[in-house]
Structures are given as structure tokens and as C-alpha cells.
């Protein structure tokens, strides 16, 4: 039976230095992300969800309190893979391409988007995520923050970009300074090529 596997990081462990250290990525990917994968495989073993795709497992368990453990681990596997792809060495700054146009349409300017995104990430109380998402129906961009493992898939939204604001994402490199981690993400790490690819995939599915 197929199991859920941990994808490799899309870059070397030291590729995001000096912003995010090799030590952070070793713990975050090899320990935290791996643990969600291991837990999920144990939880779905010999159930009707064994052999399903990660997206199918998330959709099937969202909102079902009897499957909260499955949802939390499945969503965290998905969220982390999305987060690794949202980061790139020498990234960040103003976007180019279609995402730049859509951000101006939705927020007025890149600066306004960056302010709203940073505010959502900073004010997510406790553990969670901040996202740039596209609406499944009309493709409009908006900012979403989710608590703990919660994910845009469970809310009819297409993820375009995310930042992990669980403390394990930044404590080694930034200690308690979450706002500094968020500013560094926006200035130096955002993978706008990935966001553009996600947007293009989403628009392909929207009826004009
Ligand atoms: Mn994390």
C-alpha cells in the first residue's frame, strides 16, 4: 500500500543562510515535517484513507472532529511542503509577472500587500500560518491566517504563498522576534516564481 512520503527540500539545507540556518532546516524538515508524515501514516493505516492522496485525506477529514488527528497531521504535511516551495535563496522583494498585477488589483500596491501580510503573520495568536490565497471561484487574491494545522484547502481557497509562524520555524535564528523573521521572509526569501506558477494553475481552472 502506498504511504505518504516526505519530499526532499527543494534546495540545500544551507541554501537560505544567513536568513534561515542549516540547523533550523535540519530540525524543521527532518524532525518536525518528518514527524507529521510518520504520524499520518500510522493514523491512516488499515483505514479507508490508506492509499488516498494527501489532498483527498485533508478534504475527507476537514471539519470531522473524530478525524482531528488525521486532519492535523495531513494538513501539516501539506502546509510544510508548500512552505519549503514558498522560500528560495535570493528571493523576496517586489514580485514580477502576473502575481504583481493581481497584487496591485487586490491590495492597491505591493507595499500595502506586504503590510497586510506581515500584520496577519504577526497577529496569528500562538501557532499557525499566514497565506496569500486565491478564491476558487473568482481568482481574487486575499490574505488568510490559519491556526495550528488549518489550511486553505479546507476553506475553498487556493494557496499561493505561505509563511510558517510556529515558533519552531524561527526560534533558532530569530529567537522570539517573529516580526523580524516575517520582514526577512518578505525582503529576502519569498519565491515569487512559485507564487506565479500557483496562480497560473489556479487561473487555468477558472471560467472567464
Ligand atoms: Mn513548521
Automatic annotation (TrEMBL):
The keyword Iron appears for this protein: yes
Catalytic activity annotation: 2 superoxide + 2 H(+) = H2O2 + O2
A family per Pfam: Sod_Fe_N
Binding site for Mn(2+): 28, 80, 164, 168
Enzyme Commission identifier(s): 1.15.1.1
Enzyme class (EC, first level): oxidoreductase
Residues in Manganese/iron superoxide dismutase C-terminal domain copies: 95-197
InterPro entries the record matches: Mn/Fe_SOD, Mn/Fe_SOD_BS, Mn/Fe_SOD_C, Mn/Fe_SOD_N, Mn/Fe_SOD_N_sf, SOD_C_sf
Electron transport is among the record's keywords: no
GO cellular component terms listed in the entry, alphabetical order: cytoplasm
Manganese/iron superoxide dismutase N-terminal domain segment(s): 5-87
Keywords, comma-separated and alphabetical: Iron, Metal-binding, Oxidoreductase
PROSITE patterns in the record: SOD_MN
Recorded GO MF terms: superoxide dismutase activity; transition metal ion binding
Family note: Belongs to the iron/manganese superoxide dismutase family.
Role according to the record: Destroys radicals which are normally produced within the cells and which are toxic to biological systems.
Protein name, as recorded: Superoxide dismutase
Record organism: Acinetobacter qingfengensis
Amino acid at each position: 500500500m502506498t504511504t505518504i512520503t516526505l519530499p526532499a527540500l527543494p534546495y540545500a539545507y544551507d541554501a537560505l543562510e544567513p536568513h534561515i540556518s542549516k540547523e533550523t532546516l535540519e530540525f524543521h524538515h527532518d524532525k518536525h515535517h518528518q514527524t507529521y508524515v510518520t504520524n499520518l501514516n500510522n493514523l491512516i493505516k488499515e483505514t479507508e484513507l490508506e492509499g488516498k492522496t494527501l489532498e483527498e485525506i485533508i478534504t475527507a477529514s476537514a471539519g470531522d472532529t473524530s478525524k482531528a488527528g488525521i486532519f492535523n497531521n495531513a494538513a501539516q504535511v501539506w502546509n510544510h511542503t508548500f512552505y519549503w516551495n514558498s522560500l528560495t535563496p535570493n528571493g523576496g522583494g517586489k514580485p514580477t509577472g502576473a502575481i504583481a498585477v493581481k497584487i496591485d488589483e487586490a491590495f492597491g500596491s505591493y507595499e500595502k500587500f506586504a503590510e497586510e501580510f506581515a500584520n496577519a503573520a504577526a497577529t496569528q495568536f500562538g501557532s499557525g500560518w499566514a497565506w496569500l490565497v486565491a478564491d476558487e471561484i473568482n481568482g481574487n487574491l486575499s490574505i488568510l491566517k490559519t491556526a495550528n494545522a488549518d489550511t486553505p484547502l479546507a476553506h475553498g481557497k487556493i494557496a499561493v504563498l505561505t509563511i510558517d509562524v510556529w515558533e519552531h520555524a524561527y526560534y533558532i535564528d530569530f529567537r522570539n522576534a517573529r516580526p523580524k523573521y516575517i520582514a526577512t521572509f518578505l525582503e529576502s526569501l519569498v519565491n515569487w516564481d512559485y507564487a506565479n506558477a500557483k496562480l497560473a494553475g489556479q487561473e487555468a481552472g477558472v471560467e472567464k
